[in-house]
Every structure is written in structure tokens, then in C-alpha cells.
């Protein structure tokens, strides 16, 4: 219990610190570009037209809503983090996946083996999936509170009011908009990360080397970053579907088409070469073949 409380406190602190970053990332994912491109230099020193980065975007939000405006949607996100940590911890304590594998195999699994990695990854997938499903309604509310910035709406003003609004307009399914691509992205990312880390630690790192533990931790972090890059399109599609056709300007044309399913959203983004939109908030390149519409504050 003490460990769980510590994780909640630490997680809440990190959530507060990282919230402005997520807020700006979500607005960029939706396609909101309130500032026109400017002439700057890329990482190689060449002069190119660039889109405003993190700090320019943050200054724009502060100019309109003040510094507190950077924390729109923070409360439901904190709720999601707290509930998710508790659910994740409780599911891991049950050790359901490990019990199933032990009963099936009838033998003790050697730690560090591929079978052990598969077992532990399965346990983590079950725990994380349960946490994701139960906290997704808060995630949807968080995203919609953020996207309101585009149309200056106040439709989602609080957690309880937002719950009533979503249930009245969309029913139970409205709380789980964008859940499937989010779940798929989490599961694929976790498997890629753990399997790659195991292969690197087993075949590329010699246990006789000094600082082996630090090297293995570094490889785990690197594979995690690699996996998150590969599965970023699932994050993008999930966030777009969570706000799609919900009555907000950011989820309706011209910012977004009305997608019947998340697969349609994926296909549309793929055709438009927008699968990485919002992935980087620094040195942002102009979209190829797009024209900036200052009145709509977006590219078309």
C-alpha cells in the first residue's frame, strides 16, 4: 500500500510537470497551428521555414489564457493516473498471468530466460490493459478539455459535468472513443520493448563486463524509446478518435473529417502522410504540399 501511495504521489508530480507538453502535443496532433511558419535554421544550420515549436506555442497559449491555461485538462488526467496506478498494482498482485503459466508448464521458469520474459510481459500487458480500460473515460475527458482551446468552447468544464455531457450525447460508448488503437499501441509497444531488450541483454551484452546492470537498464530505455516511436501512429489515431465528432471545433471539419471507425482515421492520415503529426515539438518542418490557412489556423 505504501509503495502504491508513493507511486501515486510521484506520478502526480510528473503529470503536473509534463502537462503543458502533452497539452501542446494534443493541439498539434489535431492540426491546430495558430502561428504562421517562420524562417529559422534546422539542425544543420540551413535556413528553412519552420512551424512554431514548444516554447512559441506555450507563449501563445499564455497570451490567451494565462499561465493556468497550460493546465487545461489536468484534473481528469490526475484522476486517470491515480486510478490507473491502483488498478495496475492490484492486478499485478493477483499474479494471474504467472499462475496460468506455472499451471500450464508445471515447472519453475528460469529468471532471465525468454520464457520468463514472455511470462512477465504477459502479466504487464494484462495489468496495463486493465488500467487503460478503466481510466480511458478520464483520458477522453482530458483530451476534450484540451481541444476546447481551438474553438474557445466551454462544453467540458469539469469531470462530473463532462461525464454527464458525454453520457447524454454519446452514451456509454462515448467514454471509450479511441480505446482500441490505444490498447493495441500499448500492447505492441510493450512486447517490442521487452523482447528487444532481452535479445540485446542476452546476445550483445557480456555478463563479465563492468557496469552490466547499468548497461542493461540503458538498453531497456533505448528499446522503450524505439518501441514508442514505432507505435506512435496508434497514439495519434487514438487521440483523434477520442475527440472526433464530439461537438468541438477540433473534432469536426475543417480540422478533422468525421471518421466512422479508427481504421478510416488511420487510412486518411496515411494517405495525407500525417502519421507522425505531433511526434516532435522542436524543429518542426512544414507539411509537404500543404498551404497554411491563416484564417482557419491550419494547413490544408
TrEMBL record:
Cell compartments where the protein resides: Mitochondrion outer membrane
Main location: mitochondrion
Solcar repeat windows: 115-203
PROSITE patterns: SOLCAR (PS50920)
Matches recorded under Gene3D superfamilies: Mitochondrial carrier domain
Bilayer topology annotation: Multi-pass membrane protein
One GO cellular component term: mitochondrial outer membrane
GO biological process, one term: positive regulation of apoptotic process
Keywords: Membrane, Mitochondrion, Mitochondrion outer membrane, Repeat, Transmembrane, Transmembrane helix, Transport
InterPro entries noted in UniProt: MCP_dom_sf, MCP_transmembrane
Homology family: Belongs to the mitochondrial carrier (TC 2.A.29) family.
Stated name of the protein: Mitochondrial carrier homolog 2
Native species: Electrophorus electricus (Electric eel)
Gene designation per UniProt: MTCH2
Amino acid at each position: 500500500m505504501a509503495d502504491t501511495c508513493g507511486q501515486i504521489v510521484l506520478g502526480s508530480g510528473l503529470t503536473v510537470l509534463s502537462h503543458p507538453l502533452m497539452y501542446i502535443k494534443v493541439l498539434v496532433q489535431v492540426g491546430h497551428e495558430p502561428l504562421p511558419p517562420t524562417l529559422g535554421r534546422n539542425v544543420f544550420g540551413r535556413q528553412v521555414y519552420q512551424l512554431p515549436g514548444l516554447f512559441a506555442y506555450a507563449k501563445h497559449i499564455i497570451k490567451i489564457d494565462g499561465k493556468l491555461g497550460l493546465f487545461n485538462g489536468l484534473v481528469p488526467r490526475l484522476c486517470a493516473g491515480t486510478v490507473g496506478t491502483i488498478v495496475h498494482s492490484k492486478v499485478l498482485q493477483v499474479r494471474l498471468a504467472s499462475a496460468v503459466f506455472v499451471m500450464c508448464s508445471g515447472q519453475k521458469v528460469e529468471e532471465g530466460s525468454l520464457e520468463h520474459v514472455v511470462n512477465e510481459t504477459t502479466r504487464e500487458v494484462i495489468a496495463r490493459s486493465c488500467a487503460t480500460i478503466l481510466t480511458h473515460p478520464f483520458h477522453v475527458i482530458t483530451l476534450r478539455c484540451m481541444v476546447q482551446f481551438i474553438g474557445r468552447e466551454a462544453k467540458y468544464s469539469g469531470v462530473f459535468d463532462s461525464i454527464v455531457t458525454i453520457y447524454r450525447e454519446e452514451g456509454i460508448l462515448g467514454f471509450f472513443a479511441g480505446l482500441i488503437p490505444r490498447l493495441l499501441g500499448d500492447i505492441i509497444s510493450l512486447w517490442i520493448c521487452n523482447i528487444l531488450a532481452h535479445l540485446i541483454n542476452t546476445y550483445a551484452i557480456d555478463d563479465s563486463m563492468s557496469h552490466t546492470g547499468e548497461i542493461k537498464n540503458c538498453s531497456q530505455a533505448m528499446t522503450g524509446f524505439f518501441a514508442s516511436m514505432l507505435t506512435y501512429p496508434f497514439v495519434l489515431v487514438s487521440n483523434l478518435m477520442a475527440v472526433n465528432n464530439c461537438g468541438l471545433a477540433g473534432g469536426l471539419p475543417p480540422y478533422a473529417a468525421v471518421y466512422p471507425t479508427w481504421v478510416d482515421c488511420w487510412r486518411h492520415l496515411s494517405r495525407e502522410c500525417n502519421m507522425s503529426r505531433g511526434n516532435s515539438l522542436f524543429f518542426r518542418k512544414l507539411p509537404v504540399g500543404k498551404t497554411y490557412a491563416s484564417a482557419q489556423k491550419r494547413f490544408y
